[in-house]
Amino acid sequence: MSGHRTLISSIVAGNYVKGESFFGYATGTASGVAPRARLAIYKVFGNSLSYESDLVAAIDQAITDGVDVISLSLVPLNQSLSLEEDILAKATFSAMEKGVLVSTVAGNKFSGDQRLHNGYPWVMTVTAGTVDRWFAGTITLGNGESIIGWSTYPGNTLIQNAPLIYPRLLRACDKIWKAANGIIVCLGDYAHIKSQAWFFAEANVLGAILIVDTP
User: Fold this and answer.
1) Which of 37, 58, 168, 196 has the fewest Cβ atoms within 10 Å of its own Cβ atom?
2) Which H or E element spans position 137?
């Protein structure tokens, strides 16, 4: 699978595939939301330039072609316009008037005042969701005690004669620690887990344990 369009298409209408898993986790049958649906895909972005007029033209064409749902997995180029000036708002409103459901994305990253994108009252704005499954991994310490925690690591790793290192002054592990011969323990709620993982890789530690309230 390559490309954003291919990814979204598989989520929408991917066919049934049995025996799928994430490196052995959550084995089962995978499929898109509507695996029997027919897709109409419209290219609106070029390699270098993008125009909202192309997006509006694609929405108009989709309405003409008789689609039931329009999925817009993108963020408007200009997000400061009022509804009266926003041509994407007008185009999606036209789709709604024709009985077409428009599904849009709320955005990938948020900062500042936490405003969502594509928040038109007549579209379905979708945010990230969660799953009701919990993926576990087990750490066995040198004294024989085992701790079960959240993990999607698929393998088994044996690390012997390595001390646990807990930097009290840098408990968030948000700075590079030269602990190549040990396993570092950090409080994950004090810093972004993604940035902590980067620091672990840079420090070249043997292993890392993150303590968090909510995985």
Assistant:
1) 168
2) strand 136-140
CA distance 189 to 196: 10
What digits encode the pLDDT tens for the residues 87-120? 888 999 999 999 999 998 887 665 555 667 777 8
Q: Residue 102, exposed/middle/buried by CB under 10 A (0-12, 13-18, 19+)? A: buried
Whether the Cβ atoms of residue 88 and residue 52 lie closer than 8 Å to each other: yes
pTM equals 0.65
User: Which backbone phi and psi does 146 adopt, to 5 degrees?
Assistant: -110, 140
How far is 27 from 33, CA to CA, in rounded Å? 18
Q: What is the Cα–Cα distance from 21 to 132, expressed in whole angstroms?
A: 16
pLDDT, one tens digit per residue, over 30-76 is 999 899 899 998 888 777 677 788 889 999 999 999 999 999 887 76
Token duo for residue 185: 């323990």
d(CA 135, CA 22): 10
How far apart (Å, rounded) are the C-alpha atoms in residues 92 and 104?
10
What are the b/e assignments for 120-151, b being 16+ CB within 10 Å?
A: beebebeeeeeeeeebeeeeeeeeeeeeeeee
Residues 6+ apart with CB under 8 A from 173: 167, 184, 186, 187, 191, 196, 199, 200, 208
Q: Hunting for tokens 């890392």 — which residue is that? A: 208
DSSP β-bridge partners for residue 187: 211
Residues 165/178, Cβ–Cβ less than 8 Å = no
